[in-house]
Amino acid sequence: MTSRWLSPTEDRAWRGYRRMFTLLESQLARDLAKQSDLSMADYTVLSNLAEAEGRKSRVTALADQVQWSQSRLSHQISRMEKRGLVSRSQTPDDGRGALIVLTRTGLRSIAGATPGHMASVRKHLIDLLSPDELTTVSEMAERVVDHLSSEQ
Amino acid sequence: MTSRWLSPTEDRAWRGYRRMFTLLESQLARDLAKQSDLSMADYTVLSNLAEAEGRKSRVTALADQVQWSQSRLSHQISRMEKRGLVSRSQTPDDGRGALIVLTRTGLRSIAGATPGHMASVRKHLIDLLSPDELTTVSEMAERVVDHLSSEQ
DNA sequence: CATCTTTACATGACATATCATATAGAAGGA
DNA sequence: TCCTTCTATATGATATGTCATGTAAAGATG
User: Fold this and answer.
1) Mutating which of A2, A11, A144 best tests the B interface, going by the most B Cβ atoms within 10 A?
2) CA of B95 to nearest chain A CA: how many angstroms apart?
3) How far, in Å, CA of A129 to CA of A111, rounded?
4) Are B60 and B70 in contact (CB under 8 A)?
5) Is residue B70 over pLDDT 60?
6) Secondary structure element (H or E) that encloses residue B88, with its range
7) pLDDT for A63-91, tens place per residue?
8) Does the pLDDT at position A152 exceed 70?
9) Half-sphere exposure of A53 (CA within 13 A, CB side)
């Protein structure tokens, strides 16, 4: 079915990509869940917050950064707030605002999970690729992201 | 945080990959939803069934093919069954069995959705990559998939 | 400054995914 | 055959994601 629309080379790349990312995603999630009490979504939020200055971020800024919808992030934050990983506070300047702040618990959690997660990323992806391939991935990704960001 | 664990080159590739696939996934899903009444999950099931011989497949076989858990597929099938896209029937040989069969409605649906979806895949990914890059993607994907499949 | 528009965020309803478990038939002995 | 174990599948509970919409503050305009 698919092959009528893509050349054999294209089809192979497209199917390969899909299989890879489906498998990789679930493997990373499983590894992470085994080694911590975090989901991939939790990890994404926490690691971005940990990198942010002051370990806090506006909702929209963080949503942009991780390429999530604002709604998705808001729901995620609500759940994480209940577990004590992050907290919300008012912004000083903008009354509509909402600052997401990494809590002490959240920091401990992400710090504990990072080594294992990074080892997992290495093992299942990074270490399987040559330096040239890594460069190619970066270039492709940036091109595709630019294209999609300029879309609409 | 991340950068302590990956070299700059590795980090760039990893972050790029994540951003790309997050964005790509949601763009494709949006396009598909706009042009049809199918989700990406629906599309995956239907297109694989359409390619299968007899346009039917055992649950486990299909789950393996699309790299889903059996449970996920079973739930998905239940929902699609309600909408008339597929139906379940008994296997002749194995009493435990379950054959998922593509219905006439399902076939019409996937046939209608494919051109638009493929155009979307082209536009947002395939046409942005050079032939060399496509080959690299295939090679990388196959390597990673092999690695992950041999895991446990 | 009264009104309109935009921006930032939250929320409810619903679709989807995951994990643990239940059920029933198949298979392989003792 | 009876029993144990394995395999194929379904399902309930719960976590997660999406879309549409609501609320309130900020900004713009007459």
Assistant:
1) A144
2) 30
3) 26
4) yes
5) yes
6) strand B86-89
7) 999 999 999 999 999 999 999 999 999 99
8) no
9) 0
The type of residue at A64 is: D
Task: Please give the model's pTM, rounded to 2 decimal places.
Answer: 0.91
Q: What is the pLDDT of residue A1?
A: 45
Helix axes A131-150, B8-35, angle to 10 degrees: 40
Q: Which of residues 16-55 of A touch strand C (CB under 7 A)?
A: 26, 29-30, 33
Nearest CA to B50 out of A1, A111, A56, A82 is that of A1
pLDDT over 60 (residue B2): no
Nearest-CA residue relative to C1' of D18: A72
- Residue with more model confidence, A149 or B63: B63
Strand C contacts in B 22-51 (CB under 7 A): 39-42
Model pLDDT, residue B5: 84
Listed by number, the residues of chain A in 110-139 with a beta carbon closer than 8 Å to a beta carbon of chain B are 110, 114-115, 118, 121-122, 124-126, 128-129, 131, 133-139
In the block, residue with structure tokens 């706009």: B34
pLDDT per residue as tens digits for the range B8-35: 999 999 999 999 988 999 999 999 998 9
